[in-house]
Amino acid sequence: MNTEYKAIKVKPLGGAVGAEIYGVDLNEMISEQQFWEVRKAFGQYSVIFFHDQKLTPEKEIRFAERWGEININRFFSSVGGYPKIALVVKEPDQKNNIGGSWHTDHSYDKEPALGSMLFAHEVPKSGGDTIFTSMYAAYDTLSEGLKNTLSTLRARHSSVHVFGAARATTGNDDTVGRIKNPEQATQESIHPVIISHPETGRKALYVNPGFTLGFEGWSDEESKPLLDYLYAHATRPEFTCRFQWRAGSIAFWDNRATWHRAVNDYHGSRRLMHRITIEGTSLS
After folding, report:
1. What is the pLDDT of residues 47-58, one digit of tens each?
2. 260 is catalytic
3. Catalytic residue of the set 191, 197, 271, 275
4. Which of 1, 23, 198, 269 is most buried (CB neighbours < 10 A)?
């Protein structure tokens, strides 16, 4: 346990990213001191996890709104009666999962999301873990020459190829029916490749395989070799942690400092999650 915390217990899950939080009951309105320490852990570890927190949708929203304004998801179905909560589900007969490749949420927005919360309501008996990787560690371990090169670059991000109508033509993707409003997939933005985190001030790599198309002023073909190198570098095992879900678990990750992917290894089982995304600010 990390002994610098007094009002909560913090157990690091990986060397570079992730920590489990204990001693907090989110069914109650936690104290300002506890919340301050939870915020501190979020800044320190980039993704925080809770267990045994079986919350109603109202309690999920209450906890999320302590962090900021909620982003109403354009593309996911919502939980009935709760438009602020996106439904992330894979049924036993479905082959593809949502979020199964490395990405960071909402990088295509002009003001990318602060973070996303995932609340586990139904999980398979085994499998269905989520893996996270640190973009602080990815940046810190680059050579000084590559850091200098990347510091002058900006990258193009888009939602069109992921959520737009063209994805329905892939044929073997049964997530298509779970993604709605393809006509709203028009978001495109440009962000620095290296950002200074708005809260921590730390530098982080800010491109991702899910939504980044290429560098500003470069073609996609010219961008691909360098992006492929960065993607391989950013997923080195020592930068990652793997979270094993159980019903009542919560993960809250910082979209400015992490990537994540959901492991699709639970065919024949159901996985039902609620997701809430917190609005962020512009990046520099």
Report:
1. 999 999 999 999
2. yes
3. 275
4. 269
